[in-house]
Amino acid sequence: MADTDFWLQKIREQVCPNHSDAADYWDSLTPEWRGLVLHAAAICGRRELKPSLARCTWAELFTRTDPRTILQIRRGIQHGRRVFAGFGSLRDSDFSARTAKRDRKPEPAQKRGIEMVIAPDILAAFDARQQLNQEG
User: Fold this and answer.
1) Distance, first Cα to last Cα, the chain
2) For residue 55, pLDDT beyond 70
3) 19: which DSSP letter?
4) From CA 124, how far away is CA 121, in angstroms rounded?
5) Cα distance between residue 31 and residue 78, in whole Å
6) pLDDT at 121 (0 to 100)
7) Is 54 in contact with 40 (CB distance < 8 Å)?
8) Phi-psi region of 52 (alpha: psi -120 to 50; beta: other; left: phi over 0)
9) 116: pLDDT confidence band, cut at 50, 70 and 90?
10) Which residues neighbour 54 within 8 Å (Cβ) at sequence distance 6 or greater?
11) 17: pLDDT strictly greater than 70
12) What are the residue ranges spanned by the domains of the chain?
């Protein structure tokens, strides 16, 4: 059965079809916070988002970008929510100096630089050439 929020949303769509909570919130953000949202969206997508978009209102954002970019911004917001939810509840005690002294979990060894993978037949050809050079 549908709850009250569902029916309020349906009524809002009929009475005020242009209403958007996302638009209201975007317009209430400072350009710095909008830039953070755009940065999260750029991390999650393939399109580069220009910093100048942070100075745009919601309506201007739609005129300067295409629908795919708007969806990328939505994905960035969703990804940001998941990342920040990973912190859980933010107690004051979690941000004290004593927490920096905790035992660190061992990190897996990371390879630095590019690791090249050579096919076995190429290795065999190199070995054969090296043997010919040593014999001759």
Assistant:
1) 86
2) yes
3) -
4) 5
5) 19
6) 80
7) no
8) alpha
9) low
10) 31, 32, 34, 35, 38
11) yes
12) 20-90
DSSP single-letter state for residue 111: -
Please write the tens of the pLDDT for every residue from 62-99.
Answer: 999 999 999 999 999 999 999 989 888 888 888 888 88
Q: What letter does residue 101 receive in the DSSP assignment?
A: G
Helices and strands (DSSP H and E) totals, the chain? 6, 0
DSSP 22-72: HHHHHHHS-HHHHHHHHHHHHHHSSS---GGGGG--HHHHHHHS-HHHHHH
Q: Name the more confident of 109 and 45.
A: 45
Handedness of CA 61, 65, 68, 73 (dihedral sign): negative
